[in-house]
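Each record in this resource describes a single protein on a pair of labelled lines. With that in mind, the following record should read easily:

===
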Amino acid sequence: MTLEARYVRDGTTRRLKRSRYAVASLFFLLGFGFGSWAVRIPDIQNRFGLSKAVLGMALFALAIGSLIGMPLAGFLAARFDGARLTRACAVTLAVMIALPPFSLGLPGLAVVLCLFGAANGALGVTMNTQASALERLLGRPVLSSCHGVFSIGGLLGSLSSGAIATAGLPVTVHLPIVSLALLALSVSGGPYLIPTEPAQRSPAFSRPSRALLAFGVLAFCVLFAEGSVTDWSAVYLREHLLASPVGAAMGYSGFAMAMALGRLSGDRLATAWGPRRLVQCAGTVAVLGSASILLAPAVWLAVVGFALLGAGLSVIFPIALSGAARRNETQPSSAIAAVSTVGYLGFLLGPPLIGFLAQLTNLRGSLLIMLLCAAAVLPLSLALRGRRVTG
């Protein structure tokens, strides 16, 4: 009998509810922690006297760490119980958040940020694997709403950190407080995480199937567009539509808010329509949003376009992860790690590629790639099973 089977046999409805709260708390933990860290990056820059170029190099170490942590988590999940591995990743991330202000110079900061990124990437894989296991136990989708909790955590982390930074609390005090709070959250939910059996007779890395490749490309397209909006929406609104600073900020705000709301409702829609139909509808909305952004003659119409794009993209990445895990039930962690890594590559590559093409043409022309990524969702959705996800 597998660990999951024993969990179901010994569990109760109350325990499953607690497991859902525990899994959701991981997503909140990661979102809140990263939101808190992002707001204090300027304080880290000032503390170490870094130029913009050097700061960019240091932050690149964080991205490299994430790309290392994702496949590493898939490798370890094939050899260790998933609940224990997830707890270790959550605790490690909570500890790492406190360390950047206390690094020993730039080399030490780069090392700390690389480890921080590795913990971030590894927790991203293990918490999505936990959510996938919870879907199997409950017989209904939960991944999308978990990603919605991540978005809420990021929003609350950034808002609270902005207020704390404005109040003048030093980063050397603030981030350790955040670390302690996240440690308490990770420890309190740990006993209710779902044990998963290590795939001891299966290789940790194997040749991906055609379906898994399709899920990876789907994730790449979605996160490519998301990264492009994150870095270029305000610049686009300022340069091409002459928006005020407040108006320029509304583009990403509308995108992020619509994405959070879409993710929170995504599980119900996936249950009612089935994942393939939902992704096809979401891809259509994303195409309409992208086209609206590129064709809008006024700021408010472009903001509506960003909101439509956020709503369309919101459910696609969680569904891709869930679909990959269901297609690889013996090694869901490895499947999620592969799809996450490819998707994160899109998030990293999108902004610089947009900038490079904008230099050759113009920003509006370069953002056409965003429309193409949204359009690619429609044929890639065929990799998803069309049936409704029900118990």
Notes: The mean pLDDT is 87. The chain has 16 helices and no strands. The chain has two domains: 3-192, 210-383. The two ends are 21 Å apart (CA to CA).
